[in-house]
Amino acid sequence: MSKKKILIFASGRGSNAEAIHEATIDGRVNGTVVGVICDHADAQVLKRAERWGVPSTVLELKSFENKAAFNDAILEAAKSYQPDLICLAGYMRICGENLIHAFPNRIINIHPALLPSFRGLHAQRQAVEAGVKVAGCTVHFVGTGLDDGPIITQVAVPVYDDDTEDTLADRILQQEHPAYVRVVTAFCADQLHIEGHHVSGMHSRPEK
After folding, report:
1. pLDDT per residue over 38-92, tens digit each?
2. Residue 81 and residue 106: Cα distance in Å, rounded?
3. Binning pLDDT at 50, 70 and 90, where does residue 204 land?
């Protein structure tokens, strides 16, 4: 089976991107990171891409006349890498519908909450403020709405009485990296199957 071409979208430090790249290098993932698209010129993920020897494209919204023009540029940049899979790794923008329609069921994201609860920004803060006892992370295919799309896998993480947004975020992040790598591994092995909103081929894994 030929290796899948993986394109990373990121806005910040890119720790999940690093985990995915490492998994391609050590053979856990039958894929290759072919590029990084970033919407912040000073993002740390760009230094990671340089270290990996992977090309990167920077497209900042402020450089475009409007959001539609920005989304068109993102789509053209993505197409230029000819990816089999797009991984959103800390990409802090909602993907344009044109991108999602161009790559149906080929864009995945990880969100630091058990969707459909606590969509959007500061999901860990939302969980702490809501007083829930269990939080976690969700890897899902990207839909046209906010943190929607078919759920691939989820990992539960306990919320303690003295948790803050930061301590909970740290505990969830420890589960994000292996969860994301498991999903990318399954995708690149052609193990994921989608029927409507249901995804088979992955199983939820409890925290260890």
Report:
1. 999 999 999 999 999 999 999 999 999 999 999 999 999 999 999 999 999 999 9
2. 14
3. very low
Closest CA relative to residue 4, chosen from 89, 81, 111, 85: 85
Ramachandran class of 14: left when φ > 0, alpha when ψ lies in -120 to 50, beta otherwise: left
Exposure pattern of 172-188 as b/e (b: 16+ CB <10 Å)?
bbebbbebbbbbbbbbb
From CA 123, how far away is CA 130, in angstroms rounded?
10
102 is written with which tokens? 């161009």
| Token code pair at residue 94 | 């909602």
- Catalytic residue positions? 111
pLDDT tens string 98-121: 999 999 999 999 999 999 999 999
Q: Count CA atoms closer than 13 A to 83's CA, side-chain side.
A: 30
151 DSSP β-pair partners:
140
State how far the alpha carbon of 182 is from the alpha carbons of 9, 25, 76, in Å: 18, 15, 29
pLDDT of residue 201: 86
pLDDT tens for 11-43 read 999 999 999 999 999 999 999 999 999 999 999
The amino acid present at 129, given as its one-letter code, is: E
Q: How far apart are CA 61 and CA 68, in angstroms?
A: 10
